[in-house]
Amino acid sequence: MPQLIHDPRTDITPEFLRTVHGWIAEYGTILVISKRLYCMADIDYALISSERDFDRLVELCSDGTKVIAFRGRPVPIAGVVDDAFIDLAVDALSSEDEYILIEQPPKHSDDHRCKGETDYTSSLRVSLEERMGETVTILACPHRWHIKSDKVTFACKGGIDGPR
Q: pLDDT at residue 98 above 60?
């Protein structure tokens, strides 16, 4: 089993929280992805629009969860999947490389994390056809989302890092 690494520099710090809170204040809503240790496919997605909701998301994450926040307001397409929704989503994301599909509703009223998936836009139509009648949110997957930048920040709860 791969080793876990404890590095306090990767922990969720007041600076990390200030940065994300600032992005929420600036854009109103941001995308947050959380990935748990040893769970390659166990990823949650959330559209967060308040500091309180972000702080609650962090609180609910288990130690070792990597919390990734994206600067900028996402442009989601949300609704019940039908033929018109599929055509709209496919047309809207035709110039994008990848998409994020977020299953709705969130887990609980005070927990905005949702299950979902990312994939190449070439498979979006098929993925949506398998979800006819379900409520989803679709948006373009941020480019270079695994690299810290002025548009992406992340931290590992408890400063625990390892395979995801």
A: yes
Q: What is the pLDDT of residues 44-75, one digit of tens each?
A: 999 999 999 999 999 999 999 999 999 999 99
Evaluated on CA atoms 51, 49, 73, 65, the torsion sign reads positive
User: Which residues make beta-bridge pairs with 154?
Assistant: 68
Q: How far is CA 109 from CA 50, 52, 56, 94, 132, in A?
A: 14, 13, 11, 33, 24
Backbone conformation region of residue 28, classed left if phi is above 0, alpha if psi is from -120 to 50, else beta: left
**Preceding amide of 163 cis, omega within 30:** no
pLDDT, residue 28, reads: 95
Condensed to tens digits (0 to 9), the pLDDT of residues 117-155 reads 999 999 999 999 999 999 999 999 988 777 788 899 999
